[in-house]
Every structure is written in structure tokens, then in C-alpha cells.
Amino acid sequence: MTASLDNKILAITRKEPDAQEFIQLVSSEGGKTISLPVFDIEPKNPKVVDEFINTVKEKRFDYCAFMSSQAVEVLFNLARRIYKTGEIISALNSRTIVAIGPRTRLSLIKHGIDVKIVPEKYSSEGLIEHFSKMDFVKGKSIIIPRSEASKKFVLKALSDLGMSVDELFLYNVLTSNIDSSWKDFTSLLKQKKVDALIFTSASTVRSFFEIMQRLTGSNTNSLLNSVNAIISIGPFTNEELGKRNIRSLEAKEHTIRGTFELAKIILREK
User: Residue 4: its pLDDT value, please?
Assistant: First the structure.
């Protein structure tokens, strides 16, 4: 029996080590994956760990929300460098921890953190919906360790609910250099052999088009017309693609598995 993705090529905007779940899912259905390294993480000075610990202690936040597994890993990597892992675990477990989705939750659990809240929808909007349905949220406080490139949507929306919101920036994102995977991808794209392209965040959209500008000039949009399925992991990713006049479909479940299932449905019909 022929697998549903037999001989199909699916590209994803993640480095190969971070794309293992997607690679395994695609492989299980007979497809091939191209992992595109779109950006690199530039952590802040480890002193930001002390700033985080001191801020949590002084302001005694009710909640701490992690918007990505990257934020979790950067925080613990920085803490490890200055031998503050135990203090970070203690500080976090003294608050109600929120994880934006299952991958972020697993990252926190791996480091010994007790996760109390995962919104029903795995997105910024899902997080806002969760808090908007809670009683007595007005006057509560929350700290969000995250990327400096993050949008202000969550900050504004939670503030509008009457919460006191602090953001702590742990890292920047820098567009990656062009490597062989990008050259292979561009070659396949020109041959109209890329069947699906998965965008995993708004940041990856921005970096993807910056890199493609270097490789193809102004031809990126016309080249993408040959891709049967362009899929975004969530609403902000979809919005970022829309700014570039790219028609994309948003996964109903804002996870890697959600994007995979949507791609499978679309490509099955092609």
C-alpha cells in the first residue's frame, strides 16, 4: 500500500535537530523533509538569570508564562553557566507556571518544573482566552521570559484584562547564514519539486524571506506559487505571511503535528 506522502518533499523552517518530530512524522508516511535553518539564538548575558530571580522574588508574581520551548532552554542554559539552576527551579516552582503548548510543557517538566496551566489553544490567543475566562484575574501579576523580537500582543492583551505584566528578554534571534540546505531547497523550488512548506513562527517568516531575497532576488513569491501547501503553525505566522501576499493555511491545532496533519490532507488530494 502506497504511503500518503510517498515521494513528496516537505520543507520546514527549523534546524534539523529541532525538526525531529516533523521529520519522523513525514518519514512514517513515505515523504522526505528539508530542514531550513532560518535563525540563530543569541542569548543575553547570563546576568539576566540573576535579574529574573531577583525580579520574581521582589515582585512575587502570581504567574510565569513560557511562550516557547526555546525560552525554557535558553533560561536553563544560562542558569547552568553561572551555577544558578537550583535557584531558577526554586523560583519557578514558587509560582503558577503556564506553558503555551505541549512542547514547552515537556521542556519545563524535563527541568523539574511543575506546569499548572496549558491553554486549550496552543497560541498567544489561546493564552489570552484562558486568562479572560478566569475569575479574579484583575490585579494578578505575570512575568514572561521570552525573545526580544516578540510581538507586544500578549503584553497588551493581558494588561487590558487588568493584569500587571512584566517581560524579561532572554535572547535575540538573528537570521542564519546560507548553507547547503538552502541551496538544495532553492534548486528544488525552481524545479517545482517542493510539495509543502511549513512556517513555524512569525520570526521564521521574516528570516525566510530575508534569506530568499539573497538567493533569488525578487522571485520568491513567484517560486512559491508552485508549492501545493504553504502552512502556518498559528495566526501570527499566518498574518506575517499575509503581509508578503502569500496565501497560506493555518493549522487548526497550533503544533508541529497539527501542521503535518494539514499538509497530509492537502497533499493527499494532489
Answer: 80
How is domain 42-174 classified at the CATH fold level?
A: Rossmann fold (3.40.50)
Position 1 scores a pLDDT of 43
Domain boundaries in the chain? Answer: 9-38+176-268, 42-174
Distance in angstroms (rounded) separating the CA atoms of residues 221 and 205: 13
Instruction: Provide the CATH topology of domain 9-38+176-268.
Output: Rossmann fold (3.40.50)
Of the candidates 259, 254, 148, 149, the residue with the CA atom closest to the CA atom of residue 196: 259
Beta-bridge mates of residue 64: 97, 143
CA distance 215 to 224: 14
Dihedral (CA of 60, 65, 71, 74) sign: positive
Rg (C-alpha) for the chain, rounded Å, is 20
* Strand pairing report for 32-35 and 96-99: unpaired
Rounded Cα–Cα distance for residues 22 and 57 (Å): 39
How confident is the model at residue 146, as a pLDDT?
92
Q: What is the chain's percent helix, strand, coil content, to nearest 5? A: 45, 20, 35
Ranges of residues in the chain with a pLDDT under 50 are: 1
Burial 101-126 (b: 16+ CB within 10 A, else e): bbbbbebbeeeebebebbbebbbbbb
Check if 9-38+176-268 and 42-174 are the same fold: yes
Nearest to 140, CA basis, from 132, 152, 148, 129? 132
- Report pLDDT for 3: 64
Q: Which residues of 43-59 are buried (b: 16+ CB within 10 A; e: fewer)?
A: ebeeebbeebbebbeee
